[in-house]
User: Which sequence fits this backbone?
């Protein structure tokens, strides 16, 4: 996903566009190879909020690792949405057929539907137009009350700000949840991942705070949760006492550093077990000497 292309429709909502664009731009600032570009069917696209946007007319050459995003637009109903020409719909369809990923924010799901990409797939959109999307594209399975869905490289999100969650999910899928949490931290947003997944990652769940010291320690634990991490070493790494670190960490996350590490280990072990690993193998993989502690943690979480 090195090239991210945003397809702009007249009346595009600025946050539908700016949210995901900021996620990938921040990821690029943090060292990942992302290039962003903007295409439309006319050189100037009016935003719903009145700002004129300039876009290119020619689609770049894209490969399977690249992403196309269709931000939503202002429309009372999907039937009132702006026309989208056949060449643009074909570009969306062809990119997916070549193995690429196509995503939408809010009403942008309508464009994917017109391109035939929602048929037989799960999708979502803004709650105001979910029923209409289901009527207009009966082959799609419209999922309600989620931030985003992902189905066979077709990723759709709900209204407006959920585009940030969608983009963070895509970044996490390629670079891991720890890096996505770092992007979210840099953007000062709470990284949520309750799209199509049954529960959110612990790496995201405990990042809804603004304590930079605690974020630094979480970065250290996220990267090495399967290894011994003595409290004195963590405290020394951020230049505070053990007592101060425990107080700050507990106040920010509701957990001690040790409990946070154990939560990450448990979550990873549960994932391994669900994919066929034995309890003993999962325990050793996440850093436990044997399965006894893992059994206790699983019983506590039940």
Assistant:
């Amino acid at each position: 996903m090195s090239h991210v292309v945003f397809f702009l429709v007249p009346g595009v909502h600025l946050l539908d566009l700016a949210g995901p664009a900021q996620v990938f731009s921040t990821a690029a600032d943090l060292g990942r190879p992302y290039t962003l570009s903007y295409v439309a069917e006319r050189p100037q696209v009016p935003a719903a909020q009145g700002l004129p946007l300039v876009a290119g007319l020619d689609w770049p050459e894209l490969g399977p690792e690249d992403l196309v995003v269709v931000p939503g637009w202002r429309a009372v109903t999907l039937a009132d949405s702006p026309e989208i020409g056949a060449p643009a719909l074909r570009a969306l369809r062809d990119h997916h057929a070549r193995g690429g990923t196509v995503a939408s924010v809010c009403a942008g799901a309508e464009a994917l539907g017109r391109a035939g990409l929602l048929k037989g797939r799960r999708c979502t959109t803004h709650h105001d137009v979910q029923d209409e999307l289901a009527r207009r594209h009966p082959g799609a399975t419209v999922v309600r009350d989620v931030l985003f869905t992902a189905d066979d490289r077709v990723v759709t999100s709900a209204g407006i700000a959920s585009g940030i969650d969608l983009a963070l999910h895509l970044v996490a899928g390629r670079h891991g949840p720890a890096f996505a949490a770092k992007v979210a931290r840099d953007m000062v947003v709470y990284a949520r991942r309750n799209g199509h997944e049954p529960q959110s990652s612990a790496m995201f769940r405990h990042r809804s705070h603004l304590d930079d010291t605690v974020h630094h320690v979480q970065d250290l634990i996220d990267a090495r949760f399967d290894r011994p991490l003595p409290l004195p070493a963590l405290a020394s790494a951020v230049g505070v006492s053990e007592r101060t670190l425990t107080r700050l960490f507990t106040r920010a996350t509701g957990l001690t550093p040790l409990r946070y590490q154990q939560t990450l280990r448990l979550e990873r072990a549960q994932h391994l077990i669900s994919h066929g690993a034995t309890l003993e193998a999962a325990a050793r993989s996440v850093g436990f000497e044997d399965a006894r502690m893992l059994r206790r943690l699983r019983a506590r979480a039940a």
The CA atoms of residues 175 and 264 lie 17 Å apart. Residues 257-274 form the longest helix (18 residues). The two ends are 38 Å apart (CA to CA). The beta strands are 3-8, 35-40, 44-46, 52-54, 67-70, 101-105, 122-123, 141-142, 148-151, 154-157.
